[in-house]
Specification:
heterodimer, A: about 475 residues, alpha/beta, Rossmann fold, six-stranded parallel β-sheet, 17 helices, B: about 100 residues, mainly alpha, 4 helices, flat
Chain lengths: ~475, ~100
Amino acid sequence: MIAEHLTQASYLLSAALFILSLRWLSHPKTARRGLAAGVLGMAAAVAGTLLHPGIISFTWIVVAAVIGTIIGVPLSRVPLTAVPQRTALSHAFGGLAAGLVGTAKYILWLQEGHLTTFRMSAITIEVILGFLTFTGSLMAAGKLQEIIPTRPITYPGQNVINLSLLGIAVAAGIGLVYRPELWYLFPLIIVLSLAFGVLLVVPIGGADMPTVISLLNAYAGLAAVAMGFALENKVLIIAGALDGSSGLILSIIMCRAMNRSFTNVLFGAFGQVQTSATAGEAKTAKSGTPQDVADLLGNAERVVIVPGYGMAVSQAQHRVREIYDVLTKKGIDVKFAIHPVAGRMPGHMNVLLAEAEIPYDALVEMEDINRDLPQTDVVLVIGANDVVNPAARHDPKSPIYGMPIIDADKAKFVIANKRSMNPGFAGIDNELYYMDNTLMLFGDAKGALGEVVKALSGEGGGH
Amino acid sequence: MAAIDLWSMLFVLVLATFIGLQVIQGVSRLLHTPLMSLTNAISAIAVVGSIIIAGEQKTMLSTVLGVVAVAASVTNIVSGFLITDRMLKMFRERAPKQEPRA
């Protein structure tokens, strides 16, 4: 019995440490302390579990832990541009673990005759959430890695089919709750949940990935909560609830930043219907050389840089940092405007810029930077498109109408770096590029910005 | 299972959710990517359920499922904590130093 008390005490300690861990993550100054608390909390929970009297052998546990470490270490060393894929993949592992534990518990309790109504309900929820999170996250990771086409894939009756699959899985689950011995319903639930996960993410496009990843994060958390109920383990419930609420809050922030609802993201297949209808209208954008761009930047007093997914794709964050350095040295005020959905996951741009050693106090949130933009001399847009499209403010017909944007068009000059004039993800033309005070800098961000740095430093040396 | 256990678990869930919502709302947007990798690692607490199943070795099938679940959870724990550490090290304040460009 002493072992049982020790186990519970370690779980209690672990739960407290997890809460502190997230509490300390609120600010970069205390964040690493938060990480330490998280590691300690996990260590306490694992230590407490290893005291469990039912464990007859540690061999396979150790083997599994070694395998996990062998996979986990390289996964933590991926380039930061690949962090969204890694995150999606880890949601997949989390979902898989929940699904497998639920399955194992069903098999064991079925044999032992311990399947109460309550346990069966918890296991059903755990298994459905776990397996749909598993395949859904694998699909998301595939799209982010561009193994699977990132554009939304749609077909007629999609939503009806998807919801029917989920409906049948839930119905089979209810059947099991009343008649746990109908074992053949269990594999059916697994297969349907796996299929539903795939079909849920297939119609969702690349730019909606921040929301999808956050939502899958919430599902993974809920699966852990359900596991906690099945195993009557409170630390599982607490950690799952923390993870679930984190996913929920991030999803809400992402949806608000796109002015869209959950249902719209999940079932809307954004970007599929738009065709380049405005292409017939002959509009011309002015194209500038790196030297032109360098002149504009070099003569400004206040510069705001708006990074987008294009910067991540081209790995241009270090060139951006060089521009930041040269301009700051000239006494020019340089800030970064971060849109919540820029990139492919929440906070993606912040991490990339931090990697390039840009101080975090230069990174400004959308709401705050918009106040400064009318007094800004030059806005440099790097691989961002929809988040600076003024149509979101004034064109009710635009698919992104109502989405909060960074008001780049209000600055005196705009420089926009793009690979070509192809419209962005949503297939929407961006009038920002055709404004009189906009200069386009065509080319891959890394190369083009490298040229600008050269021009800037050359000019600096000549004075 | 006594009804009281179900209710105490529901109390734990509701209270933990409120704490979670409160605490997460306080996390700076700067750190949303590390937040996600940290909560990834924390939700790999599923490892406690997996360890028992893998260690009890009651049936061949349950042991295999448990071992895979332990491996998946440990992957998340290891990679989640390590990458969070890697990212958090990168966030630094504006320093007065002027570094020459390489």
